[in-house]
Specification:
The chain is α+β, with helices and mostly antiparallel strands and 273 residues long. It has a single domain, classed as Aminopeptidase. Helix content is 35%, strand content 23%. It contains nine helices and eleven strands. The strands form two sheets. Strands 1, 2, 3, 4, 6, 7, 9, 10 and 11 form a nine-stranded mixed sheet that branches. It has a two-stranded antiparallel ribbon with strand order 5-8. Helix 5 packs across helix 9 and helix 6 packs across helix 7. The protein is globular. The termini are far apart.
Length: 273
C-alpha cells in the first residue's frame, strides 16, 4: 500500500497560542484527522458512513494513503502530542499521477484544470472541531495552505466546496449567485459529469440579492471567493454527505503574494543579523 511521505518541509514554526499548524508526521496523526472528520461529517452533519467507517469511527478512503494531511493541533489538550482540531487533505498533481488521481473526478470533468501548466493542488476533506470554529483556527489553516503552496510552487488550487442540503431549489439563491458572478473562464471551467449535472442558473441575474446570497454561502466557499476563486459549470448532489457541491478553482498568485509579504515583513521586523 502506498503511503504519503510524512515530512514537515513547508513549515517552520506556525503557532497562535497553543495552536500549531503543520503536516501530519505519521499514520497515527492521519488517523486522528480521520477521527475528527468522522465526528464532524457523520456525527454532527449526519452523513452516512460505510459499515467499516462506523466500526472504526473514522472517515477514510484510498486517497488518504497518498495525500498530505494539514493539521491544526491544540497542544493544551491532554493527549500525547496534542489534539487535532482542524484538518485539510492536500493532493498535488505529482501525488495524484502516481496513485489514484483526484477525488474531484468522481463528480467533475476537470480536464481544463489538469491541462494547466505547473503544479496544481486539490483541497478536500476540510473540517474544524465545533469548539474551535473561530477566526484563529481558520487563519492557521490558511497560513498552512499558503506555506504549502509557496513551498511546492503551486499555480492552481481546486476542489469541491459544499453547501448544506440536497434540494437545489432551496439553494437557488447561492447557486445562482455563484453562476452569475463567479463562473470560471472557459479555460479553467470544470463541468459536472453529465449524469450528476445540476443547473446552477436557477434565478435570473436581476433576481439575485448578492448580500443575501453571500450570507447563505458557507465560510469556506466565501474564503475561496475572497482569493479570486471561480466555480465550475454545474452543481452535484452528494446524498451521502447531505450536501450540494460546486467545483471551486483558485489561482494562487494572491495566496503566495500575501504569504511572501507576511514573511518579508517578519524579516524586516527582525532587523539585520
Amino acid at each position: 500500500m502506498a503511503t504519503a511521505e510524512y515530512i514537515d518541509g513547508p513549515f517552520g514554526d506556525i503557532h497562535i497560542g497553543s495552536l500549531e499548524v503543520r503536516l501530519a508526521l505519521d499514520p497515527a496523526e492521519v488517523r486522528a484527522a480521520q477521527a475528527l472528520r468522522y465526528r464532524v461529517f457523520y456525527d454532527e452533519m449526519k452523513a452516512e458512513p460505510s459499515p467499516a467507517m462506523a466500526r472504526a469511527k473514522r472517515d477514510f478512503d484510498d486517497f488518504d494513503n497518498h495525500c498530505d494531511h494539514l493539521l491544526v493541533i491544540d497542544h493544551d489538550r491532554d493527549q500525547p502530542r496534542g489534539a487535532v482540531v482542524g484538518t485539510y487533505r492536500l493532493n498535488r498533481r505529482s501525488q495524484a499521477q502516481a496513485q489514484r488521481g483526484f477525488y474531484t473526478t468522481g463528480e467533475y470533468d476537470i480536464a481544463p484544470i489538469v491541462a494547466q501548466e505547473g503544479e496544481i493542488l486539490e483541497l478536500g476533506r476540510s473540517c474544524i472541531d465545533s469548539a474551535y470554529r473561530n477566526g484563529t483556527t481558520v487563519q492557521l489553516l490558511w497560513r498552512g495552505i499558503a506555506a504549502y503552496v509557496f513551498y511546492h510552487d503551486i499555480k492552481l488550487m481546486f476542489g469541491c466546496g459544499s453547501l448544506r442540503g440536497v434540494d437545489p431549489d432551496e439553494l437557488a439563491l447561492p447557486l445562482s449567485y455563484l453562476y452569475h458572478s463567479h463562473l470560471a473562464p472557459e479555460h479553467l471551467r470544470a463541468k459536472a459529469l453529465p449524469h450528476l449535472y445540476v443547473d446552477m442558473n436557477r434565478l435570473a441575474a436581476d433576481q439575485v440579492d448578492r448580500r443575501a446570497a453571500l450570507d447563505a454561502l458557507p465560510p469556506l466557499v466565501k474564503g475561496y471567493l475572497r482569493l479570486g476563486g471561480f466555480v465550475g459549470d454545474g452543481a452535484v448532489i452528494d446524498r451521502q454527505f447531505n450536501t450540494t457541491d460546486v467545483c471551486v478553482v483558485v489561482k494562487t498568485e494572491l495566496v503566495t503574494r500575501k504569504y511572501r509579504q507576511h514573511y518579508d515583513r517578519a524579516d524586516r521586523d527582525l532587523g539585520p543579523t
